[in-house]
């Protein structure tokens, strides 16, 4: 899920949340266009911490890096959801056409085509890794460790 956050319009996170990608520990490659979007958004070093080192980054670190819109302190899940809904309701009151047009303009500026190309490259490389003996063994070990079904 972490690699998909770039695609969302707004990302609100609880201070206790963390962000991490499993690619290197599993012996795979980045996916979801993250090899393009993460360095573009947060810089090479922070992107490498997530994609290459598999570091576990805090909500505050991801806010500072630009992937999280806001840190939303809350005592309970209900309070967190209530605060998120307040934002959503406010935005829902804006003019629909203006919102749509603004999103189209920002999508063009975000380099969506480059992101799609990065995702295609990642998919090709991911297939290589998934079809390797090492990759299949890694997935089997992961499934067993997490209590998932047999591969």
Description:
- With 151 residues, the protein is mainly alpha-helical.
- It contains 8 helices and 4 strands; from the N terminus they run E-E-H-H-H-E-H-E-H-H-H-H.
- Helix 2 (34-42) crosses helix 7 (112-131).
Task: Write a short abstract of this structure.
The chain has helices at residues 23-26, 34-42, 44-51, 59-65, 77-92, 96-109, 112-131, 133-145; strands spanning 12-13, 18-19, 57-58, 70-71. By secondary structure, it is mainly α. The strands form two sheets. A two-stranded parallel sheet has the order 1-4. Strands 2-3 form a two-stranded antiparallel ribbon.
Low-confidence stretches: none
End-to-end separation in angstroms reads 21 Å
Q: What's the β-strand tally? A: 4
The pLDDT mean sits at 90
Shape: globular
Q: Which value, in Å, is the CA radius of gyration? A: 18 Å
- Structural class of the helix and strand makeup? mainly alpha
The main sheet orders its strands as: 1-4
H/I helix tally? 8
Order of helices and strands: EEHHHEHEHHHH
Q: Assign a percent range to the helix content.
A: 55-70%
| Largest sheet report | 2 strands, parallel
Task: Give a quick set of tags describing it.
151 residues; two-stranded parallel ribbon; mainly alpha; 8 helices; two-stranded antiparallel ribbon
Write the layout of secondary structure elements.
Elements lengths: L11 E2 L4 E2 L3 H4 L7 H9 L1 H8 L5 E2 H7 L4 E2 L5 H16 L3 H14 L2 H20 L1 H13 L6
Parallel strand pairs: 1-4
Antiparallel strand pairs: 2-3
Helix pairs in contact: 2-3, 2-7
């Amino acid at each position: 899920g972490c690699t998909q956050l770039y695609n969302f319009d707004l990302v609100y996170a609880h201070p206790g949340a963390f962000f991490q990608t499993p690619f290197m520990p599993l012996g795979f490659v980045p996916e979801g266009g993250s090899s393009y979007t993460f360095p573009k958004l947060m810089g090479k070093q922070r992107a490498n911490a997530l994609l290459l080192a598999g570091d576990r980054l805090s909500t505050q670190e991801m806010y500072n890096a630009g992937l999280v819109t806001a840190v939303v302190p809350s005592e309970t899940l209900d309070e967190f959801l209530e605060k998120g809904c307040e934002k959503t309701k406010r935005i829902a009151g804006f003019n629909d056409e203006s919102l749509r047009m603004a999103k189209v303009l920002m999508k063009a500026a975000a380099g969506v085509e480059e992101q799609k190309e990065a995702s295609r490259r990642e998919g090709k490389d991911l297939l290589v890794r998934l079809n390797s003996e090492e990759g299949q063994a890694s997935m089997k070990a992961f499934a067993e460790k997490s209590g998932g079904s047999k591969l």
